[in-house]
Specification:
Blueprint: H1 2-8, E1 47-52, E2 62-64, E3 67-75, E4 102-110, E5 116-125, E6 144-145, E7 149-153, E8 159-163, E9 168-172, E10 190-192, E11 195-200, E12 207-212, E13 218-223, E14 234-238, E15 241-246, E16 252-255, E17 262-266, E18 278-280, E19 283-288, E20 294-299, E21 304-305, E22 312-316, E23 327-329, E24 332-336, E25 341-346, E26 352-358, E27 370-372, E28 375-379, E29 384-389, E30 395-401, E31 412-414, E32 417-421, E33 425-430
Parallel strand pairs: 17-21
Antiparallel strand pairs: 1-33, 2-3, 3-4, 4-5, 6-7, 7-8, 8-9, 10-11, 11-12, 12-13, 14-15, 15-16, 16-17, 18-19, 19-20, 20-22, 23-24, 24-25, 25-26, 27-28, 28-29, 29-30, 31-32, 32-33
Length: about 425
């Protein structure tokens, strides 16, 4: 246990120089920024700029240098076609937007002013299947950038590589996915070195593939025995060897990033898996919050089926998020349930520093928390962003309200600024 404690103090390699937020979960894939951000703001205080974003999209912004990239889907106004059959079935709220033509758009904004520098229509298409009427969109897959290109992922509508000046480099098309209950697509791609990884888990023919980031050429593809899931793949280095880890309902699986060969697998999560893995110190933390919720801390270094073995350091089935991904900072794991209860566990043991603490109001959450300089930022569906002091006790520092807004997309932090995407606009919060 002492060895594990020492290892947990280490973090994964930094992704980019400076203060960029180049991917959905930040520079180290753990939700933690390198810089800082304001603690208090409202519509009249510390809002540096507000830029309306057309259409509908719940993807998070990514940031490189002086540029911000965000995706959206904009109805064209063409008469709606007859809705396509919902092959995945309809659940509560599922299937909205099917049969209506949309423009699938990548926007580039100036980080300092919020001015739109350029807009590119990746494609115009009529989606075959809809999304959850409250929490879904046709632009929920967050983009990613390596500082040379930005990769805009629209799921069934394809993956597009642009230069930072908006020149299309390549595009990759995919067959239409069939998502459970027509809830919509949303898994973000992962980039490591010269390879992009895309996981497409759905109700028929799930697969994982690796693409050359420079050309879009397929390097390998492996089938997956999974139904619909939305968790992002994460590349983890352990003992000089990289693993590509993906959470899902049937099995958490780790693959060799170079070949796609299965390294290990482990059962134990519930259904409809959405939260992304986080890792440090030779342990990967995965969780689910739908039916049969569970969290697993899995020690890396073994191969084969790890289900029920002592590779499982601890488990947790209380207070897990259905939607939001956790924040891992040092040896503390923070997460918030969809009904607004905040927990902080000791990542070494799974024991709670505090568990299911109520916030100032009975909030609803779909956005993942982010952190900077000892502060945890919790963007709520109800329009408030609650700032909590990180540590072994739950201390609310501030509750910040932007009038008539709602946050489904996860925030981003770069430098000393917080970027919040509401259902209407992108905000820059800066002192």
């Amino acid at each position: 246990m002492r060895f594990l404690a020492a290892l947990l103090l280490a973090t994964t390699a930094l992704w980019a120089a400076g203060d960029d937020w180049a991917r959905w979960r930040g520079p180290n894939e753990n939700g933690v920024a390198r810089g800082d951000a304001p603690t208090v703001w409202d519509d009249a205080k510390n809002v540096a700029w507000r830029t309306p974003i057309p259409g509908r999209g719940f993807s998070s912004p990514v940031i490189w240098g002086d540029r911000i990239f965000v995706t959206t889907a904009v109805p064209t106004g063409s008469p709606a076609a007859a809705p396509a059959p919902q092959q995945g079935g309809r659940g509560a709220g599922g299937g909205t937007g099917a049969g209506r033509e949309h423009k699938f758009v990548l926007l580039c904004l100036d980080r300092n002013t919020g001015k739109v520098l350029w807009e590119r229509v990746a494609t115009v298409a009529t989606p075959h299947e809809g999304y959850h009427n409250r929490y879904g969109s046709f632009a929920s897959n967050s983009p990613i950038t390596d500082g040379k290109h930005v990769y805009a992922f629209f799921g069934s509508r394809g993956l597009y590589s642009y230069t930072l000046d908006g020149k299309l480099v390549w595009r990759k098309e995919f067959p239409p996915l069939r998502i459970r209950n027509a809830f919509g697509e949303g898994s973000a791609p992962t980039l490591d070195g010269d390879t992009l990884y895309v996981c497409q888990d759905h109700e028929g023919g799930s697969f994982l593939l690796a693409l050359d980031r420079n050309t879009g050429k397929e390097i390998w593809r492996v089938p997956r025995e999974e139904g619909s899931s939305w968790s992002q793949p994460v590349v983890i280095a352990h003992n000089g060897r990289k693993q590509l880890v993906i959470s899902a309902s049937n099995r958490v699986r780790a693959y060799d990033p170079a070949t796609g060969k299965l390294v290990w697998e482990c059962a134990g999560l519930g259904s409809n898996v959405i939260p992304a893995p986080v890792a440090a110190g030779g342990v990967v933390f995965v969780m689910s919050g739908h039916r049969d919720p569970n969290a697993l801390a899995i020690r890396l270094g073994r191969e084969g089926d790890l289900t029920g073995t002592d590779a499982i350091v601890w488990t947790n089935n209380r207070g897990n998020p259905y939607t939001g991904s956790p924040v891992l900072d040092g040896n503390k794991l923070y997460f918030v349930s969809d009904n607004g209860l905040l927990s902080c566990l000791n990542a070494l043991t799974g024991e709670p520093h505090y568990r299911q603490q109520r916030l100032p109001k009975p909030y609803n959450f779909k956005a993942s928390p982010v952190a900077a300089n000892g502060k945890l930022y919790l963007a709520t569906e109800d329009g408030d962003v609650v700032v909590v002091k990180m540590g072994e006790t739950c201390e609310v520092l501030a509750t910040n309200t932007l009038k008539d807004q709602s946050f489904i997309a996860s925030p981003a932090i770069a430098g000393r600024s917080l970027y919040l995407r509401s259902q209407e606009a992108l905000y820059c919060i800066r002192q």
